[in-house]
Amino acid sequence: MARSFDSCALPLSTKLKLRDCGFDSTEDVKESSCSELATELGITSADALKILEIARTQDSHPVSPRHDAVRHVVLRGASGSLPSSSAAVTSETGVSAVDMLEREKGKKYIITLCERIDQMLGGGITIGEVSEICGVPGIGKTQIGIQLACDAQIPACLNGPEGKVVYIDTEGSFMPSRAAQIAHALVQVVNPQVQSHAERKGEPLPKPLTAEEILHNIFVFRINDFVEQLSCIEMLPSFLEQHHEVCLVIIDSVSFQFRHFEANFNERTRLLMRMSGQLNTLAHEKEVAVVVMNQVTTKFSREDSVLIPALGETWAHACTTRIMLEWHGTMRVARLLKSPSQPRNLAPYKIGSDGVRGFRPKARSKRRHNSFSGLN
Prior knowledge:
Pfam families: Rad51
Protein name: DNA repair protein RAD51 homolog 3
Strand content: 15-25%
Domain RecA family profile: 106-296
GO biological process, one term: meiotic DNA recombinase assembly
Organism: Hirondellea gigas
Largest sheet: 9 strands, mixed
């Protein structure tokens, strides 16, 4: 049911602008895009997002004045008026250390199919945490993201999550044809192992996993600006309520749209911290792995320059685990920069037609004719 903006928790100046432009109720703006509303009212995209969130929420769900005010406080974070929403997240009761220890023992992982990387991470990408993968263009961030999106569907009988995936594509780098290629390669690895497991257990053979099924279980959201990115993350909890099988959320990349951010630095920092709080809450409460890809930037000093993850020191606290992908000559290497449980380490990997795999240097033959010994 449409509501008058006079009864909504909006600044008076905003209500006047809405009225002057002919917007009298929530019904009048709910079909507008964020950019259209911002242009027509002469306001920032963040303020337009706030109006649309209030309008669409209140238009579909009648709320009490108290809930209306609380919703307004949370949404004000988008316009930079308050710190991130994570500050508003509270718990009525604490959790005992014993419960936390039991939860830690029961951690589940999504493997990368690169054994060295999985060992470095203690088992793979941890479900229930935010992990960040950084690196220069062409190093394989998206390839690893697509690989994880397929690996998240490995059957439970092989200790896989057997879940579905949300892939938020902010750069237009998700290629369905490449995902199909990696999915076909995964099926060739998984199905024989599932069959072998069933035979050992004396169980009936399950339905074989198919590449089409893997692709069907990847929900791709194409994002075109930072406002859409914030809005997409805002709606993720409700989306996961409708899709309980989702075990992995990938953002590729988290930094791309924010590197084109037009507002001041302080506003960008507040929006990033708000997004950080939302992602960590999502990972913890919905028991999903959140993997964010990040670009790199150059940090200069008097003596040298070094590549570091983008978005600054504040964002560095957003993730539980941080991995930097690097070139060592012609070899790709994953470097563990941050982990609460694993030491810093390196793991080589390669990217081929079948996806991400471990890298093993070929042993050189001492004598040339040895390589043809099998034909003698």
